[in-house]
Amino acid sequence: MIFTFSLVSSNPNQIKQWLTKLEALYSLSLTVLEERCVIGFYQKKVQSQNDVSSSFNQRTRNSDSDFHFISHNASVEHAINRHSSDFERILSDSEGPFTLVQWNRTSETLRTACDPLGQYTLHYAQNDDGFICSSEASFIATLINVNRLKEEGISCWLAGQPNPSTQLFDVIRPLPFAHYIELTHNALKVKEFWSIKPSNHKAASDPDATAQFEHLLKQSVTQSIGVDHSSVVSQMSGGMDSSSVTALAIEHQHNNSNKLISLSHFYSKSPESDESDLIKLLNNSLDCDDHILMAADNDQYSDFLSLYPTDFDSPGTVLSPRYHHEFQHCQHHNASLLLTGNGGDEMCWGHASAYTQRFMRGDISVIKEVFLGCKQTGIPFRAVAKKLFIKPLVPNYIMSLLGKQTRSETIDLPNWLTPQGQGLANASLTITSPYSQAENSVHFARHHTLKTTATFNSLRSYQKVGAQYGIKVAHPFFDKNIAQHSFDVSPKQLIRGAYPKWLLRSAMDKYLPKEVCWNTHKTTFDQHFTKLVRDNAVQLRNVLSHPKLADLGLLEPGPLLAQFDNVVQNKAGYVTVDLLYAILTQVWITQHHND
Length: 595
Description:
The protein is α+β, with helices and mostly antiparallel strands. It is built from 26 helices and 21 strands. Strands 2-3-1-9-8-10 form a six-stranded antiparallel β-sheet. A hairpin with a 2-residue loop joins strand 16 and strand 17 (314-318). The two termini are 33 Å apart.
C-alpha cells in the first residue's frame, strides 16, 4: 500500500514549489496531467530502502477526456470499464477498499474518493494557493501552515467517542465516509455516493439470512485476497471475527494452491485477556500452513509511551512496535497481505435494545429467551429484566417524580470535560441517520456505532505501519454489502438469547469448532490495559497534567486526574474507554502539538 495525493493550483509555479518541498521528504511517483494538476503516489523516505517496498503499484486508465488514478483495488478498474466517465456509477459498482482520483481534461474537474466504509482515508485543504488532497493529514501539513487545532474534534476525543469525520485541524478536513470531492474552477463540493438504506421488505428466514451472510463474507474475503497474494497472514485471536476470516481465507488459499499463515497473540500476564486454549483448538482444527504466536504483554511492550506512539493524523492512530513486529513476521513468510477480523462487532454484534424493541412490539417470548440466556451466561436476570423490560415502559416524567435517572437522547460524557468541551463533543457526535431513534432504536444505535466505532483506530494504525513494509492490510467485515445486509435482517438474527453475533455463528458453524463458534464468553482487555497504565502511572500522570487542553477551555484537570488516580490506587478500578482515549489525546498533544 502506498499513499495517494493530488495537487491542483491555477499557478503552475505553486505546483513546482510544493513538489520541491515534498521531494525532500517523500519518494514520489508522479503523473503530471497538465501544469495546474498533479496526482500520484508517495512513500516517506527512509534511510534504508530495504525497510520498505520501493515499488509504486498504481493502476491508471486513460480515456479521451478522463484520467483515472486507482490505488489498492482492481475492482475499480472493472467499474471504470463498465461506466467510463460516470464517477458516481463507478463508485457504486466498486467493491472493497480503494482510493480513486478522476481528472477530466475537458472541464478541468477533479473528483476523488475512497471506499464508503472508510478503510482508507482522504484529507483535503483549500486556500488561495490551491487544493491539496492526501491519504495523510501530515502530508498536507508539510505544505501549508497548520497553526491551530479544531476544538470540536479534540473534545470528542477527550470524551472517548471520536467521530472520524470531525476535523482535528483548522484547515485540514477529513473526507466523510461514502462521500467524494468534486473540484472545479468555481467551487469545491463534497457529495454523498452511498448510504445504508432502510429495508422495506420482510426480513429473510433464518436459513436464507445465514446463507446470504456466509456468501457475502466469503466473497469479501476472496476479494480482499484477489489474485496477487500467494502467501497471506491472517490474524486469529480465538474469537469469532478473526477466526471466521481465517477459516474462509484458508479455504480460498488452498483452493488456489496458495498459503495461509495464522498469527495469534497471547497474554501471559493478563489471564482474562488470554485466549491461548481457543487458539490451540483452532490450530488443531484449521489447516493453516504455519502459525505465528506472539506475546502481547512481555517486557518489550511494557512502556506505554513507547508501545503507543501516536501518529500526527489522530490520537487513535498508534504506530506500535508490536504492529511492526507483526509485519516483520509477514515479511519472513513472504506474505504481501495481512487479514484482520476488524469490523465483526460493528456488523454482527446486534444491540441489547433489540430485546426491548421486540418486547415493545408484542413479542412476549423474548422474556423467556433473555431468562434462559442469563441462566446460560451466569448474569442475574432480575437486573437485566429491569433494564430491558421495565424501565423502558415507565414514562420519563414518572421517573423524574421518583427521583430516578431518566432516559436521555444525549450521550453521557465524562466529568473532565468543561461545559464548553461537552457542548462541542455533543455537536460532533450528532450523526445524520436514516433511522428514527424513537421508532427503531436498534438500527439507530447500530448506525451511530458504524460511523463512530473505535475500531477505525485499529484500521488506521495497521494501514500506516503496513505501508512502511509494502504490505497491504484488509478488513473483510468492513464491506458495504455486509453492512447493508446487517441492517436488512431482523434484529433477532443478530442477537438471540445468550448469543450476540447469532447470524455470524450460524454462518460459520460448519467451519469452526463449536467451542469457538458458540462460546458465550466475550474476552475483554480491561485487565491488560489497567496493568499497563498502573505500571506506567508516573509518566502517564505527567502526560495527563499537560496544560494545553485546559488552557483551551476543554478539560478540567482535577476530575481527570482523580479518575486516573482511582484506577492506579484502587484494586477494583479499571481503565475505561473514555479514560484511555483521554490518555491518548494528551499523549498526542505532547508528541505533536506541544507549543
